[in-house]
Amino acid sequence: MTPVDRLLTELRALPAEDRHPVSLLRSFYELGEVSEPPAVEPPEWLGRAVAEGVTRVAAGWPMNALFGAVRMLERLGLAKLDHDDTYVLAMVSCLGDRWDGAVRTEALRRDPELRELVWRVFEVEGGGEVSLANVDKFSEHDATWAQTFQVLVADGTLARDRVLRSCLQALGRDFSAYRAGWFAQLYRSLDPSTAERVAHQPLLLHLLRSAVPTTVSFAVAQLAFVAKAGALDDDGYTAEAAAAVVAPAKSTAVSAISLAAAVATRRPDLAPAVAEAVGAGLGHAHRDVQSRALAVLRSSGARDIVAARLDELEPSVHRTASDWLGVPMARPLAEDPEEPTPTVAADATVAELGARLLAGHLDALDVERFLAALAVGDHAGLDALRKQAARVLADTRWDRSLRRHIAALIVGGPKRASTGPGTFLARRLGEVAARRPAAPLLATPTDSRGWLDPSVFADRLAANPEPRMFDLVAALLRLAPDGHAEALRSAGTLPGEPGAVARYALGGAPAETTTAAWWVAAARSRKPLTDDPHLVAAGLDRAGQGRAAEYRLRLGKTAYDSVLEVDPAGARERADQPTVVGPSSVWPGLDADWIPWHAAIWPHDAEPFFAVRAAEVLTASSPHPDVTYGTSAILDTLVTHPGRLGPMAATTLAAGLSAAEVRHRVLAAEACARLVPAGRITAEDLAGAMAHLAGHCTATRWAATLRDAARTGPAASAAVVEVLDHLLPRLAANHPGLHALLETRHEEAVRLGRGAVGDPMLTWLRTVTGGSKAARLARLVLAEAAHGSGQP
Amino acid sequence: MNDGDYAYSYLRESTITAESGRSSVRLATSGGPASHPYFFDGFVERADVVATALLAVARVARTRFYTPPGMLAAVLRAADPVVTSDGHLLRFEGFSACCGVHCRLDLLPDGLDRPPADTGTTNVDFNPPMRDALARVGGADPVHLAVGTDEVRVTTLDTSVVERRVPLPERWVKGFGDVQAATAAMSVRFETSAVALRRFLQALPPTPQRGVLYAVPAAGGLRLASRPSTGAVPISAVERLRVLDPLLRHAQAVHVYAKDSGGEAASAWQIDLAQARITVTVSPAASRGFSGEGGLLEDLADGDATTDADLVSARMAYDPAIDVPALARDTGLAEHRVRRALTHLAAAGRVGFDFETGSYFHRELPYRPETTNARHPRLRDAGALVAGGHVVLAPGEAVVRSGPTTYVVRSTPDGDRCTCAWFGAHGTSRGPCKHALAVRIARQKARP
Question: Best residue in B76, B166, B195, B242 to probe A by mutation, most A CBs within 10 Å?
Fold first, then answer.
């Protein structure tokens, strides 16, 4: 009995539930090539199963050459299949072997019918795992479809011109950018001659209208070869050029305009149509494209076209065009950014708050209100959340999260929350969970920004003279800077150490420092940013205790190697002293859902928070960023934190301006537009932080985000210019992406009508010489400065 | 979630041919008022614009803008777009496979050389060769467009029926209706230029955007903001709007619509073209459709609305805009009840909404829309809670018992608030929870 007869015999006995279509194909594939027809009658279900197998491999890539079995089954008459799109995709999926290119090449060489069918791969796009682009992406270089075509074209098995034309026809189909790119790459890899490109010109012209930007770039590049050979179809190109001059890639748009300009020179009769097409280039985002389009339009005297699109131009191009047209330059109006407003309803019940917190909406004020309710024994309606809370507790994803602690509070089992380190916040939750006799919390903020009114604090302490340990620390750190004198009078008779600590925080006399944590909190509240002699004398002289701390991020080779430096050195993080943070902070190791509440610990000063959080933003901002989960919340804190924003906040903002993710850049642009004009982070400090991170951040992203910031209003635009005037002199003349920063500086200065440049910047600009884009822009800025100062 | 296969049956495949140097687009039809309706056979202005716009509709209909985890190898079985003729204009609509993007192209009467021959809604075949051919159509000349085939042609052609089966998930069919109710609750937030929108889209990084952001007008165009503000339009997964990019070079103006409330919400982006309009509506998040948008569930919870909807439906004609006062007069219903009935009909896919006229238009989806109401599980569950006597009303609040758990629904100036986990997660951004709906239904029933 032959192997195929043996297999068919086995299949005839196969139970229905074991007839797996792809496994079936694999069984025939493992037989190898069979040429003799089987003597055994095939099972009646075989044809249907093979068809189902073809459908499955057309949808999912099996990564080996099962299609050979399909062809064999057809040849042996064991399967009759429609050669439809599914069949073609099955061929794309598994005609070849992922590791061995010869399998596919040989299959096509020895199967004439397949060589006719193979042209259909240029017509069927595919999707998911199965497409030419995707199969090749995950195959060895020598085993790709592209390599197969190159080999078979080289040995004459497949007609070269048909392959080239098929590539261009495929590019003209409505395929996705990912899958279309494969055909452009194959065309290029076959290195068509000038004569071939000229012959393909009608197809190339059609591609200028493609919805895929890279296809337009490809077509323009190929047509440039045609034009160089003097064979460009001027009429055809003029009719299609408008679509190409708005291609996103600057180089493509500029090339398309240059080709059009040459047409207008050769064919004056086409000049009006060329001007219409080139006019679209004034709407391009890039000033170089606009400038090139404007130059062409000026040379053809197309004033109406320019006048109609003046508002679309970048400031410097706008000014040139206005000068040419003899009209005053209009400066676009802009609005100032609105102040953020809290969105949480103040009257939410404890159950409503609990539901929100369990769902992951962990607003700091909501957490505080929830704790405040639990502390006085308000559990109304929480039973409705027990099932949801139990699910959170059972889910290991939340092991180091705040919502797990919230869930534990709801089900009433404080021990169940004790995963992760005992941070200050975890200990506060523990105090509430302990359910001592009901007593109101001291630390619940009295305003939406997280401050605690000192008089309210004094009243609360009077009503609860034996406060919870961590609750009193939290309350002391939140004391608002105003109203201390009145509150101090109210606190004059408060008993015990809590009373003494409260009075000291409010500006009263020092006393014996028995409970260090309380006194540290009181000192950081009393004079947040300066040393406290009383605590220093008492031996509490570490950074963040009696001493005001300063922080700096020491950078390693990559964004992941940064180390926090604290001055004075020797700070050791303690759960009861949250103003003390050290190089080995526990905070970044926790779930990102702690971040809003963490940021609200000390409203006076954001530095300890950003000191331990800046590294994550730096990770999100590197040229090859990892996915980060807390970056949005950290950047949001820049805008919402009411206290001092120091060097670490500036470092965080500098990193955020270079973030890879659009949401992070939006947050950073808004923070820049609010904080720098308001002086909360000075332009000089931000520039200093950017210079510090320049080796890790991407300058072109900085430029784009600063442009976005500048567009929020005139004050922000001026702030951006100021930041760049401080930053640029600190960068090397060959810093990657320098041109983008210079361009942003130039355009915003023109928009503001501010040509003046300070001495350090002036000196630096003169060092940027040569023919680079940066050097050209430096000369523009210098010329602007000379024009502004009246110098020649 | 598969609702089973839906069968398209076309008399032939749609084709594009060149006739006398002009492109001729022949769209085959399936289902609706007849097996193979015949709506139009004439010329439409601007072949390049029509071809690009039809491709945009087809692209939305065959795109999955969001792939849930675990579905990476999913095969896309695209559903065919639908076309509605009201006797004046033609509206082509497509809905994405992920249920998050709706696209509608209106070919306006000014651009048609004659009125459509009939009224109704049908599917049209957009096969791959047809799309390939559309991508090659260019030039500013009129294009010959046929939607369906007249009887004479049917009898003279050697026809062979083209049949295709596609799985239509329940949420896809429901979403196609829901989006109409969502758009009816929107108003124009700002207008901008095609250049501004193109720059905005081209400036987006290639990485997908996470979370909701806001598009706001800024110096020189549009920018993204992290917080809502006056005139801001919420937009999630903004890269979905790139489907509009090929149309922007033909655009004359861009109108952007959204609900007035801040936070995560749907938005609609309407592009004015020469004698045509195209509107892309995007859901509040890439991973979800339009469920609960536009106060839909509140309207559906009104028991009277079902009866009213039947009454209004019987009086509707395929007019370009549904005249609410006239319908109110015809039916004897108050205008607000007519509007609520129209929301009901929108969710059932029986009317669409047109921003330009600010009114509904009649269209009947060919996808068994009559069962749509049963596809709102929150509404179904709320009805069951009321029927089971699990809702106890009290002034200012209500108690809803669901199994062993008791929920409290409070009436506040911001709307009803519930203590359930669903409300905690979504608030009012996705419409009311089933407990709040149950309370609403119970209050209606308790009215004298």
Answer: B195
Question: Residue A55 burial by CB count (10 A; 0-12/13-18/19+): exposed, middle or buried?
Answer: middle
- Residues contacting B270, CB < 8 A, separation 6+: B254, B255, B256, B257, B277, B278, B279, B355, B356
Q: Are B73 and A338 in contact (CB < 8 Å)? A: no
Structure tokens at B131: 């799309």
Least CA distance to B425: which residue of chain A?
A359
ipTM of the complex: 0.85
Residues β-bridged to residue B188: B257
Domains of chain B: residue spans and CATH? 2-169 (3.10.150), 182-289 (3.10.150), 294-374 (1.10.10.10), 376-446 (no CATH)
Cβ contact A123–B225 (<8 Å): no
* Sequence-distant (≥ 6) Cβ neighbours of residue B171 within 8 angstroms: B1, B99, B289, B291, B375
Confidence of residue A760 (pLDDT cuts 50, 70, 90): very high
Q: Which residues of chain B have pLDDT under 70?
A: 1-5, 69-78, 150-162, 292-295, 367-375
Query: In degrees rounded to 5, what are phi and psi of residue B346?
Result: -60, -45
Q: Which of B312, B253, B296, B314 is nearest to B278 (CA)?
A: B253
Structure tokens at A685: 């400090």
Measured on CA atoms in the order A160, A166, A171, A176, is the torsion positive or negative? Answer: negative
CB contact under 8 A, B419 and A385: yes
Contact residues on chain A for B238, CB-CB shorter than 8 A: 662
Selected residues 65-94 of chain B with any CB under 8 Å from a CB in chain A? 72-76
Whether residue A358 and residue B424 make contact (CB cut-off 8 A), yes or no, is: yes
CA of B285 vs chain A CAs: smallest distance (Å): 14
How close A524 gets to chain B, by Cα (Å)?
32
CA distance B224 to chain A (A): 6
Which residue from B135, B205, B425 is facing A359, i.e. has the nearest CB? B425
Residue type, A491: A
Q: Minimal Cα distance from B54: which residue of A?
A: A174
Top residue of A313, A353, A666 to mutate, by most chain B CBs within 10 Å, is A666
Cross-strand partners of B5? B167
Instruction: Supply the pTM of this predicted model.
Output: 0.87
Q: How many CA atoms lie within 13 A of A506 on its CB side?
A: 25
Contact between B102 and B57 under an 8 Å Cβ cutoff? The reply is no
Dihedral over Cα of B134, B136, B140, B146: its sign: negative
Q: How many CB atoms lie within 10 A of CB A523?
A: 31
Q: Which residue(s) pair with B94 in the sheet? A: B103
Inter-chain residue contact A174 with B135, CB threshold 8 Å: yes
Residue A418 burial by Cβ neighbours in a 10 Å radius (0-12, 13-18, 19+): middle
The Cα of B84 is separated from the nearest Cα of chain A by a number of Å equal to 24
At residue B255, the 3 state secondary structure works out as strand
Buried b (16+ CB within 10 A) or exposed e, A169-193: bbbbbbbbeebbbbbbbbbeebebe
Helix axes A315-325, A738-752, angle to 10 degrees: 50
Residue-level pLDDT at A299: 94
